[in-house]
Amino acid sequence: MSDVKDLVERYLAAWNERDAGARRAAVDGLCAEDATYTDPLVDVAGRDAIDAVIGAVQQRFPDFVFRLAGDVDAHHDLARFTWELGPEGGEAVVVGFDVAVLTGDGRIGKVHGFLDKVPAA
């Protein structure tokens, strides 16, 4: 379980990484080559696309950070966790819930994301 929590924390750190090269290296280390990411706003496949989504979210929410909100629950090849996005030390503007499907080598193969709280348009 601690390995899965560490993986989730590294995953969220990748979403916070502002240096494009370091972020891409994190994505490559965390995700299977054919990994997918799906939430209500996007459905992408591959590390290039996942990296691009993270970059787009960073542009939309500059200076905000992702943080784990609660425990990571895991069994078999599944992990679920709630995350928050907001200003450092401030109230979350976005709250989501993700389910990650892990590969046999402990990487992320799929992420299914749900948005529980989103800002008004």
Features:
121 residues, alpha+beta, Nuclear Transport Factor 2, Chain: A, seven-stranded mixed β-sheet, 3 helices, 33% helix, globular
Task: Outline the structure in words.
This is Nuclear transport factor 2 family protein. InterPro entries: NTF2-like_dom_sf, SnoaL-like. Residues 8-108 form the SnoaL-like domain. The chain is α+β, with helices and mostly antiparallel strands. The protein is globular, with a radius of gyration of 13 Å. The model has no long low-confidence stretch (mean pLDDT 96). It has helices at residues 2-16, 20-30, 47-60, and strands at 31-39, 42-45, 64-68, 73-75, 78-87, 94-102, 108-117. Strands 1, 2, 3, 4, 5, 6 and 7 form a seven-stranded mixed β-sheet that branches. It contains three helices and seven strands, in the order ααββαβββββ. The termini are far apart. It has one domain (2-117): Nuclear Transport Factor 2, Chain: A, CATH 3.10.450.50.
Structural topology:
Elements: H1 2-16, H2 20-30, E1 31-39, E2 42-45, H3 47-60, E3 64-68, E4 73-75, E5 78-87, E6 94-102, E7 108-117
Parallel strand pairs: 1-7
Antiparallel strand pairs: 1-2, 3-5, 4-5, 5-6, 6-7
Would you kindly provide a brief summary of this structure?
The chain is of the alpha+beta class.
CATH architecture: Roll
Number of helices: 3
Work out the number of β strands: 7
CATH topology: Nuclear Transport Factor 2, Chain: A
Question: Roughly what percent helix?
Answer: 25-40%
